[in-house]
Structures are given as structure tokens and as C-alpha cells.
What we know:
Elements: H1 8-27, E1 28-31, E2 35-41, E3 44-49, E4 52-55, E5 61-67, E6 71-81, E7 87-98, H2 101-106, H3 111-127, H4 132-137, H5 139-153, E8 159-170, H6 173-215, H7 217-232, H8 245-263
Antiparallel strand pairs: 1-4, 2-3, 2-5, 6-7, 7-8
Helix pairs in contact: 3-5
GO cellular component, one term: side of membrane
Subcellular location: Membrane
Organism: Vibrio nereis
Amino acid sequence: MPGIPVNTELLTPILIVVLVVLVLVRLFRILREYERGVIFFLGRFQKVKGPGLIIVIPVIQQMVRVDLRTVVMDVPSQDVISRDNVSVRVNAVIYFRVVDSQKAIINVENYLQATSQLAQTTLRSVLGQHELDEMLANREMLNSDIQEILDSRTDGWGIKVSNVEIKHVDLNESMIRAIARQAEAERARRAKVIHASGEMEASEKLVEAANRLAAEPNSILLRYLQTLTEIAAEKSSTILFPMPTSMMEGLFKTMAKHEENKDK
């Protein structure tokens, strides 16, 4: 079969146009507002470019994109033994972003993985220095301590750790029951203290009232009669009450005077 004739004069310009297009595609790069390009010239660091339209010479220059947005990273659950020898599982979340693209690419191989591993070890180290009650009650303080340590250690990587939040502190069932018993005992102790304080205040008021009543003998009689009036309002029961000797003495004196008048 005869071969198909090829027009070499037409093929050459097409190849040139395709080559030029490929070069232009590789030459111009577009970086978004939150991206930066770390440029290497023949393997050596040259500059950081972006955002917008930048020129990267193929083969001679290479570019590595860096995202400057805040990264939300979940720290896997870590087994931690507290200072009072209680085993717990703790997980957290950290918020960080790249502030120096050059350091993030040159000073560390993978800044995301490095930050994750450092967060895990720091979480175990910091929480292991505190007791269980501090983990449960002082999370803000622990969050601040972990954030400061991570921020200082990742500064050489061009990373800024803005926040750390401890999400969960998981306890085993036996420890949960022990904490419940402790809380119950604490509530019982407070109830006894409040009851004792009430008894103390009541005794002080009774002593004060007794001193005032003792200063005036007739006040005791009036109080006695008032009590009888309150008791007599309930007619469903029989009431036996003692007679004060002061009233009996007055009655005996009256009867004696009456007998003397009769004899006369």
C-alpha cells in the first residue's frame, strides 16, 4: 500500500506552536491570595513569590506551593498517666498556620506531620505533670501551657500555633464510680457542716433569748401562756402541761388571805 504523504512544512509550525504553548503554561503560574510560592533556582533558594501571576522558568526554577490558611488538626487520643497515677485517654485539637514559607519548606521535611507528632508528645508530657482533678477542672490553664510550648518549638519551622483545645478526658468505669463516690461523700460532708452551722446559730439565738427572758420574770409567764394558747388551738388531742410554781405561790397566797378574812 502506498504511504500517506506528510507535509513536513505544515507539521513544523504546529510543533513549534505546541512547544511554545507548553512552555507558556509552565512559565506562568497563578497563586491564590492565601498561597505563596517558594522558588528554587538550580536547587538553591531564591525568593518567595505570590500571590497573583508569577513567572517560573521551566527546568531552571522550581516552585513549592505553601498554604497560609489556618490548619485545624485533630490530635489522636493519647494514653496519659497523671501525676497521681491515674490512666486516662486524652485527645485535643490544635490551630496553627504558616507565617514563614521559607522556613516551613527548608527547615523541616513535612511541617504538617512534624507539628502533629510534636503535639502528641507535648500533650502527653504536659498532662503527665498534673493530677486528674487539674485535668478536669483547669483545662484553660493546660490549653495555655501546651499552646505556649508548641508555639516556641515550632517557631523555627515558620509556624504559629494560635490555639490548643483539649476535647475529651476519657476515664475507665472504675474511676468514674470512684469519682461519683467521692462527690457523694463531699456533698454529705457539706450537708453535715451546714447542719452543724445551723445548730450553732440556733443555740446562740436561744442563749440570747434566755438571757432576755431571765432579765424579766413576768416575760417567762407571758411566753408560757402564749405557748398554751398555741397548743389549745389543736382540739384533737389531750394536753397535759405543768403549772409554774410562781403562779401556784400567788394562788396559795390569795387563798391564805381569804381564809384569814373568814376567821376574823
